[in-house]
Amino acid sequence: MSHNQYSQSLPAPCIIDTGILVNKEDIRRLLSSLSQVRYIYTLDGQVQRQGEGFVLEIFSDPQQATIVANGTLFLNVHSFDYLEMQQTPEQLTYLDLVQENRHLRLIPINYADQEPDMGHNLDEVALEAMLNQVLSAKWDVQLDDEDYPF
Questions:
Q1: How far apart (Å, rounded) are the C-alpha atoms in residues 135 and 138?
Q2: Which listed site, 2, 51, 116, 126, has its alpha carbon 20 to 30 Å from 71?
Q3: CB atoms < 10 A from the CB of 69, how many?
């Protein structure tokens, strides 16, 4: 059996709570399930930055940067070599985005465990981020309409 025949007959990986993802589309899909996270950015094992933010965009473009600023995260899967899923002793999954000696750890924030009403009360940063996305999308549509008048 040739290598191609063998590799085509293997089933797709199945990863449950822990493991390593190298496929960019798998990484993008997993990250798209996040909304608010705690993040820890380390370089050579030393913490450089940490905080909390809202994941506003997950994309795959080798020409654009991953950006974490002002309580928001714009994550480019091409900024990282792989994603490692791990669990805390309490069985909570966290994600490490890895590129050589750089790690961006994302710890999902689950407000359901902290306060029952949090699902109904979005804070100001979340509302502002959502409003910015809606307005940006509206401007994109308006620009497209100007380019293609019918």
A1: 5
A2: 116
A3: 9
